[in-house]
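Researcher: Next entry in the queue.
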Amino acid sequence: MHTRITPALFGIVITLGLAACTQPGQEPEPTSESWSAEQEAEAVRAATQAVRDYYHVTAQCLSDPPNTDPSCLERVSMDAQLENDKIALEYFREHGIHMIGEVEVVGDLEIVEVRLFRGVGEVDEITFSICSDATRYDWIGPDGTSVTPSHGPQRGRSTHIVRKWTDTWKVSETLDPEGAAEC
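Model: Structure for this entry, 183 residues:
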């Protein structure tokens, strides 16, 4: 049986609060005046692609945990997200679990907040609300049967914070609120 559990949290890490994030439906924060509309559009495009890449690469990394170097996850995640992903990888290794299929991002990503800076020491950040569909993935145990928990919806909303590190956008944090609306 399939269920909607994001690869970021895998049901083994604590759900993080949304207190520091703008809630979906609120207007995005204005960006720095030093960014042109074209530069901002490019940043949003790159951050959007980073979210989509995150789901694809994470599925690849968790398809064969015993043979996956944790640096595989560093290509698409950083900060708290990278730590959560490494915990998930280790959990899968310890329990002989691997992932088949992939969680799919459905439709467009809704922009919640855009924070772009030009100053030294400030990190560019874009927050998205996304709809993900988990009908095409499963966790498989050592005996070849599904071990995916059977609770929760097949589709649901989550919030992804994407930050720019050097020249690369990576998922920095995923927030899966309790009782998130299906999409």
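Model: The helical segments are 37-61, 71-74, 79-95.
Researcher: Noted, moving on.
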